[in-house]
Known about the structure:
Elements: E1 27-34, E2 45-49, E3 54-58, E4 64-68, E5 72-79, E6 86-87, E7 100-102, E8 107-108, E9 113-115, E10 120-128, E11 138-143, E12 158-162, E13 168-174, E14 177-185, E15 188-192, E16 205-207, E17 212-213, E18 218-220, E19 224-230, E20 243-248, E21 256-259, E22 265-271, E23 275-281, E24 288-290, E25 294-295, E26 320-322, E27 337-338
Amino acid sequence: MTQATKVDVTEGLTTTGIDFELGTLPGVSGTVSDQASGLPIPKAEVWISSSSQRFVTYTDQNGEYHIGVAPGTYKMNANAPGYSSEWYNEQADAANANDVLVAPGGTVSNINFTLARWGGGISGTVTDTVNAPIEKAVVKVWAAPDSTKPPANVRPFFASTSTGADGSYTLQGMPPGEYIVAAGGGAYLLEFYQNAPDIRTATRVIVQNAQTSSGIDFALELGGSIRGTVTDAATNAPIPYAFVSTRGTTTSSLERGARADKHGAYTIDGLASGDYTLRGRRESSASTMTASPIPHSRRPSRSPPPRRRPGSTSRSPRRRIIRSSTPVSSAMPSTGSLSPSR
């Protein structure tokens, strides 16, 4: 900046001839491909870094990339969804990576990467408490926060899938590590492996590369429900398609919600015993609807009943429906309704 020539600008006039001649920046080029098949990997990330700067580019449909950088010595790595990250030249980490030297006025070519696809996985079944399979239950997997960490530029692993008609599920393409696994959905309570109520107490699942950790099973309990209608405080007319969410005031449950139908009626399923605060939102405006706590169960909270397995003579679980008569806004709407504040 201290050597730049100043440009004078006069009000009402255009200063012309302020032209530039840019030199070609040297750089690095190469390819990213699948280690097993040799096929190119499109949209793979290629990172190049020095002690003072860091850049990223992406491969094209042919798995090729080029990144322009100033002369210097760099470390490089590549990664793509479903693949292990690799540092140049076929190294697992930055400490053992080969340096890439970019000389003045030149481009370094053939800095290629061959990535190994992740091959780990988990599988299991999701049933209810009498061992009947639950179809379309949602199984979610998170990388444990303090397990073996990937390079800083690799996003934390997350995946989800749904169970089949027999209640079974399989997730593949997972990197080695420790994972938190949970299952739930519909009218069933969310459960973490093994029978844990929240992520803090969940048993971690260890996944090895090229191996499937099987038997990650869940037996879900039916939760309770809150149902009602959403109406306009001034006209008492139903508000169609409003969104209503709940958050427990005496439980560690996650926030859940549901969208009202065209008549303003809504049902929120899968709630654990406890008190809940409701909030509604009308999509056509910025107004919100708030609620005082609604007791989910009139009985004191207690520990869940023991699981029942095949051979049990107990009855099938029953679904608890809670219709609240507690006023839920200062507008004093009719029983079980929410009204927007003005």
